[in-house]
Specification:
The protein has about 290 residues and is an alpha/beta fold. It has twelve helices and ten strands. Helix 2 packs parallel to helix 3 and helix 4 runs parallel beside helix 6. The N and C termini lie far apart (about 40 Å).
């Protein structure tokens, strides 16, 4: 159901509020350039600083703007199971095709707690579920054995794996590759993840170069591995530039420099340090994105 270049889309702001018009324009930009699916309210969408009403509204806009042209995978996770269920219920009512569920952050559940969390959401709101493992942000790593247990649930269809551990990702494919789709959670390992059985990427860099990110995936799917490698290696410096500072600071700054959004994010995220900003401008210029 989910493969290819899937964008974790930014949430643009204007004077402190969600910039709905610009958000719709970003969605059109993605679809026109070959993006396979849209993820509103992920990490890159600053979900942590959206209140419940804004979170639901952003998902509503995404579903409406996409209009069934590609899947919408709504970020509705949380470190409170009941809150995740509430957000997921809204996403289903809004018409989202699936939900992205991050491992609960800060409270560091056990592997059994993780299993029960995702199972409770699946039982409360039957909707295709993409697990999201990102231990660098959440403080907990979901092990392949837990993923394999969850893959037995019909709602659990994919995992966005952002642990950076290729061995762990390969083990997920070995244990449950016939039941769950592996998606890279990091742009800088797209090709390695594909090589161990991944089917796509939930991408940050696709916000600024959707066509190029989609081209890497298309070349791989067509079996042209040499072309996929060439395209990926060209993209790699830009992938790294998106993490000169905490995501989504660099990607939102890039979009602002490209004239696509206002240069606004919410505290505790703040503008880039001058030295990093200059490095980012150079990376964008070297790639041909700035005149």
């Amino acid at each position: 159901m989910f493969k290819g270049s899937i964008v974790a889309i930014v949430t643009p702001f204007k004077e402190g509020r969600v910039d709905e018009e610009t958000y719709r324009e970003l969605i059109e930009f993605q679809i026109e350039n070959g993006t396979s699916a849209i993820v509103p309210c992920g990490t890159t969408g600053e979900s942590a600083t959206l209140d419940m009403a804004e979170h639901s509204r952003v998902i509503d806009i995404a579903v409406e703007a996409v209009n069934k042209r590609v899947p919408v995978i709504a970020g509705t996770g949380g470190n409170s199971t009941s809150e995740a269920i509430e957000l997921t219920a809204h996403a289903k009512k809004a018409g989202a095709d699936a939900t992205l569920q991050v491992t609960p952050y800060y409270n560091k559940p056990t592997q059994e707690g993780l299993y029960r969390h995702f199972k409770a959401i699946a039982e409360a709101v039957p909707l295709p579920q993409v697990l999201y493992n990102v231990p660098g942000r959440t403080g907990v790593n979901m092990l392949p054995e837990t993923v394999a247990r969850l893959a037995e649930l019909s709602e659990v269809v994919a995992i966005k794996e952002a642990s950076g551990d290729l061995g762990q990702m390969a083990e997920i494919v070995r244990l449950a590759g016939d039941k769950i789709t592996l998606l890279s959670g990091d742009d800088n390992v797209i090709l390695p993840v594909l090589s161990v059985g991944g089917k796509g990427v939930v991408s940050v860099v696709a916000n600024i170069v959707p066509a190029d990110t989609a081209a890497v995936m298309r070349a791989w799917e067509e079996g042209d591995m040499a072309k996929a490698q060439t395209l990926f290696l060209k993209l790699l410096p830009l992938c790294k530039a998106m993490f000169y500072e905490t995501n989504p600071i660099p990607v939102k700054t890039s979009l602002a420099l490209m004239g696509k959004i206002g240069d606004e994010m919410r505290l505790p995220l703040c503008p880039m340090a001058p030295a990093n900003l200059e490095k980012l401008k150079k990376a964008l210029a070297d790639y041909g994105l700035l005149g």
